[in-house]
Design goal:
The complex is a heterodimer of chains A (229) and B (414).
Chain A: E1 3-14, E2 20-31, E3 35-39, H1 46-53, E4 61-66, E5 69-70, H2 76-86, E6 87-90, H3 102-113, H4 118-131, H5 147-158, E7 165-169, H6 177-194, E8 197-201, H7 205-209, E9 213-218, E10 221-222
Parallel strand pairs in A: 3-8, 3-9, 6-7, 7-8
Antiparallel strand pairs in A: 1-2, 1-4, 4-5, 9-10
Chain B: H1 3-14, H2 16-54, E1 58-61, H3 71-75, H4 98-107, E2 111-125, E3 128-137, H5 139-145, E4 152-155, H6 158-162, E5 166-170, H7 171-177, E6 184-188, E7 194-203, H8 208-213, E8 214-218, H9 219-225, E9 234-239, H10 245-256, E10 260-262, H11 263-266, H12 268-306, H13 308-317, H14 321-356, E11 358-359, E12 368-369, H15 377-402, H16 406-413
Helix pairs in contact in B: 1-14, 2-12, 2-14, 2-15, 12-13, 12-14, 12-15, 13-16, 14-15
Classes of the chains: A alpha/beta (229), B alpha+beta (414).
Chain lengths: 229, 414
Amino acid sequence: MSAVLAAESVVRRLPGEVPVTLVDGISLVIERGEFLCVMGPSGSGKSSLLYLLGLLDVPTSGRILLDGEDTSRYEEDELANRRLEKLGFVFQFHFLLAEFTVLDNVVLPMRRLGRLGEAAQRARGVELLERFGVADQAVKRPSQLSGGQRQRVAIARALANDPLVVLADEPTGNLDSAAAANVRQILRSLAHDLGKTVVAVTHDGAFAAAADRRIGLVDGRIDAGWQLA
Amino acid sequence: MRIELGVALTHLTSRKRQTLVSLTGVVLGVAFFLAVSSLMRGSEKDFISRLIDNSPHITVSDEYRVPDVQPAQLRWPGAAVQISHVKPQNETRGIRGYRDKLAFVESIPGVRAAPVLVGSAVLTFAGRLQAVTLSGIVPAKMKGVSTIEQKMTEGSLDSLTANPNGIIVGRTLADRFALRLGSTVSVVAPSGVNRAMKVVGIFRTGVASYDEEQTFTLLKRAQSLLDRPNRANRFVIQLADPYAAREVARTIEGAFGYKAVSWVEASEDILSVLLIRNIIMYSVVAAILVVASFGIYNTISTIVMEKTRDIAILKSMGFHARDVRNIFLIEGLIVGLLGSALGIGVGVALMRVLGEVTVKPPGVTEVVHLPIWWGGEQYLLATAFALGSCLMAAYLPARKAGRVHPVDILRGAT
């Protein structure tokens, strides 16, 4: 196993009259093919850490290394390129684009990257939808799908450009237990069968139990003794 | 198809009503722009063509723009010189050696010229007096440079050649004095010379003062009446290209020193009024498009506000700020292009309708169509204005969209 994503003494502080520290000196190494869960109470900095690891936000100090590259020197466009090529996101509320069909939503990151031709993009989109059992919904709008189906489409979209790392923010937070179990199984399979690194933020104990490793966050710091209630 | 174009089209088609309202604004803006522009430019061109057709393109007169410098000033330049008891030299007014100068003018390609001797006289008939302008002309040459031959209601300019003692008068004067062809009038020059002349022609231009005070006779007869033998004091010049008048006038004035006034110079005040009128007209029609652009601004701003979360998602996927900005600029561009194309169609239809409208100006007997200009540049101008306003309207919301920070939106949404 080799490190694919690492945080070195990462601090994220929001400026203001009373500065707020979201992440406070976290160091973390995540291996290729690892399924890591980040847990902790509300306001502990879980999502903030995920956004920093996902290059959506930049640390106030410290650095994030993605696939061995120090990303602290990158400008906004370069960070966007790394997100496009190497990262995939799954959010609690699926966040599919309402005016696009299911297939068009999945194809969108591929179109932006432009490595595949149009036909190949659509073929890969259909293949991903088939893998997650929603190929028959390809021409529908997201509003015509159930919550579990939408989340599976969101996972398919996250995998569109074959990323190294999939970052998930409360991916089962809005699903019933059956759909949550299905998504949990899919994410676990991504790590173990496809070799993707999966970093997920969750409150869900059953979800966390499926992970290879769990870390607890309290007040923006890793708390080794933190236990799920 | 580029991805930004695909997203832009999806946004616009998913908000059909708002898009239609914005589009209608641009269509009407472009259509009214064209209708007003074609009408204003049409009337301007009509006016200028009448100006060019009915007046000399260049008039050379026996005047100088700058008076001669006194010899004493030449002898002591910069000095304060007072000259007492100066007695100006008397000379016969007129263009000296006019035949040679006329030959020179006529040698310029595309130039037709006629010599004229203009002076004042008093015309008497049956005890009535009328001060008139007496123009001595060469009928054959005058016909080439003036429309007066077309204004003759009785007789012709050639009648002067047939009857060297003839005079042509205006319709107003003829009516006032009850003159007919063959009537004999008495013409008294300022020098006191009195000559009986026969009316051989009557013209009517429609300009009352001209028809009352203008008279024509042979150049030689005028020279003898006005006591200016072998002189002409005007050259009336027509050009094949009226718009070369300023340049040709400069050449002639440079060659002779006599003042040569082109129709452009003579009508400068009118032309500047037309220019100001055009500026006002384009400001008004551009304002229509600016108002229309507020509709586009409103539509795109609304889309940006509604789509903030989608923008955050696109950026989290790896879209650059410029990709997002381009999506909304393309939306403005699509509305602008489509609006311009449809607006040109509606505008042309409007111009056709206006072209069919007839009016009867006061004092004119014939009915005239509204003058419509079909020149291509106004379509380009309307399209440029429309695209410019649409892009400007789209720019602000597009810039705002490009600046969306995904974390701020995602944090607020979860």
